[in-house]
Amino acid sequence: MRTVSLIVLCLVLPFAAGAQTRPEPAPSVITADTPIKTELEKIFGGLQAQLKEIDILAAKLKATTNKKPEDTQTQINGAAQTLSALADRLQPTGDLAAQLSALRNAAALHRQRVQDMAKDSIEEADRTALLKAWDKALMDTDKTGAALGEMRDRLTHVLSKLRMRQAAVGEYLLAGQYQAAVATLRSWLGDLDATVKSLHQAIDPAKPAS
């Protein structure tokens, strides 16, 4: 939460300075990197980092099917813990969601501030361009939020399936049916592969454009 507070403070401080000096915004402000753009890219980077973790996990589990029975069970248990931790980070109460919400609120405030500027303090062409820039920032935060939600839902679904297969693998191993245990794991890996592919299709195109 401290991180979120610092982000909001950095984004809101310019309001006070603008109210005192009312500087005329330069056109370059529209294209230059701004705190909200930088922070949004960091949040998106966090989503991509989690997707990479899932890629690595899938590769490790594929190798697991050629190992000893006890190794297979250990890897499945570890996979369940990893996916559970990743899903927790994406919850609406998690850090990424909180940071994204703070950024969207700040962008909305900035947009309203520009909208409310007196006519004699800014050229209308600049106001229009700046409003367009803040509209894009709001759109980018919404796209990132949608990607975050989709990743969370898909991870929760595949994790639920893994927990059922986890129970089945334990029972197969107890019954000495190792090949059946491997078969049910491979079947779940097909679900994981499909999930990873769909996540790449959802997350990669959602990256905020420059």
Overview features:
Four Helix Bundle (Hemerythrin (Met), subunit A), mainly alpha, 210 residues
Task: Kindly state the number of beta strands.
Answer: 0
Order of helices and strands: HHHHHH
Contiguous uncertain segments of 5+ residues: 1-33
Which band does the percent of strand residues land in? under 5%
Sheet bearing the most strands, described? none
Total number of helices = 6
The CATH class is: Mainly Alpha
Shape: rod-shaped
Q: Under the CATH scheme, which architecture would be assigned?
A: Up-down Bundle
What name does the CATH topology carry? Answer: Four Helix Bundle (Hemerythrin (Met), subunit A)
Number of domains: 1
Structural class: mainly alpha
Query: What is the residue-averaged pLDDT?
Result: 78
Distance between the termini: 28 Å
Rounded Rg: 23 Å
What share of the residues lie within helices?
Answer: over 70%
Can you walk through the features of this model?
The protein is an all-alpha fold. It has one domain (2-14, 35-206): Four Helix Bundle (Hemerythrin (Met), subunit A). The protein contains six helices and no strands. α2 packs antiparallel against α6. The longest helix has 51 residues, at 124-174. Mean pLDDT is 78; it is low at 1-33.
Present the secondary structure layout:
Blueprint: H1 2-21, H2 35-64, H3 69-89, H4 95-115, H5 124-174, H6 178-203
